[in-house]
């Protein structure tokens, strides 16, 4: 066996290190428009450009408002942001060693090309890098969540809801603690997940995206030194809210990131529910409750041709675990900053896209997986028919009601049923014989004799309408 180390390959060195940029690229590409380095830089340019327009609109320091054409030409810098700007920033940052400064220089360069040198010094005026970054992150994360991640979560919820409605009356044996328990329906069990996810999705939709714009330590000191008569907090608030995000007026050098902590905790919560869904569906497939629909050309095993592996749910499970770890780290790190500022948040926030990428990949697999399963109702019914002992709950509860009504002299009905069924398989005929000998009223006895495991589903069917 060879023990030689392969030579370094320039071709391999150029390949993606992360699977999100490799084999899974197609599933997560939508996030790159917002949460990539280029997406962040585009948003930074947007904030810088809009700040210049906001300042000139107020004719500050003798500046004249830009014409509509000049504003549109300036806004084209971020609206048409592309490879030229990406390359320009990369080249400049290799010298500045500071990404936001490179963005400032890009804007200044474009101002010169547009003949707007007169307002060049309003670029990044009185701003610290975190003024630009906090607004840029709020913009990019909000857009990624609202335009890419939430629609995919909604698609999974809708797929679940559709399956819940389709299988609302499909009686199935429940398994609490893994043991046979009071029956439900597959539709109701899927509706539980849809209900849980809808609640968290609504919380995420109602979340805030905040930015600060108050200078080096959140005091507007430089602003007041330059123009003490201007209400800078109000101007900053109007500017930030005009970008479509919320304003945080009380900060250190950085926006405190609490909105991010709240968001990532909620997304991680949604991921936990989705993980629960993935493992439950996997288990139902293993039990034969769901059959997997073969995909033409697909291979389940390299050596066992008969297999159709539940890879969609396994992939989702693993990626949700990775995402949960990243979101937990984001939330626990971003909630703290030493004194007025440290840089731990800077490198941490560069992984926001990675966290959402693994989460989005999981959602994509769940959406696909839910469309590739078919309910085996015959298996569900056979499982129910093999477990008549689950009717013990119904019998002892009816007996209790009969005792209270004065129609029975039975003492301790729970113990009576426990003796009959605990740890034993009891068939329909045995239960019918047992019920026939009970000291209860005729009407109650008739109801119990008519009961079957498949019919003992309570309001499960109707509960689906709650979704």
UniProtKB/TrEMBL annotation:
Any one Gene Ontology molecular-function term assigned to this protein's record: N6-(1,2-dicarboxyethyl)AMP AMP-lyase (fumarate-forming) activity
Involved pathway(s): Purine metabolism; AMP biosynthesis via de novo pathway; AMP from IMP: step 2/2; Purine metabolism; IMP biosynthesis via de novo pathway; 5-amino-1-(5-phospho-D-ribosyl)imidazole-4-carboxamide from 5-amino-1-(5-phospho-D-ribosyl)imidazole-4-carboxylate: step 2/2
Residue ranges constituting the Adenylosuccinate lyase PurB C-terminal domain according to the UniProt record: 337-457
Annotated Pfam families: ASL_C, Lyase_1
SUPFAM superfamilies registered for this protein in UniProt: L-aspartase-like
Organism domain of life: Bacteria
Domain Fumarate lyase N-terminal: 22-316
Keywords assigned: Lyase, Purine biosynthesis
One Gene Ontology term from the biological process aspect of the record: IMP biosynthetic process
PANTHER family associated with the record: ADENYLOSUCCINATE LYASE
Record's function text: Catalyzes two reactions in de novo purine nucleotide biosynthesis. Catalyzes the breakdown of 5-aminoimidazole- (N-succinylocarboxamide) ribotide (SAICAR or 2-[5-amino-1-(5-phospho-beta-D-ribosyl)imidazole-4-carboxamido]succinate) to 5-aminoimidazole-4-carboxamide ribotide (AICAR or 5-amino-1-(5-phospho-beta-D-ribosyl)imidazole-4-carboxamide) and fumarate, and of adenylosuccinate (ADS or N(6)-(1,2-dicarboxyethyl)-AMP) to adenosine monophosphate (AMP) and fumarate.
Protein name according to UniProt: Adenylosuccinate lyase
Organism of derivation: Microbacterium aurum
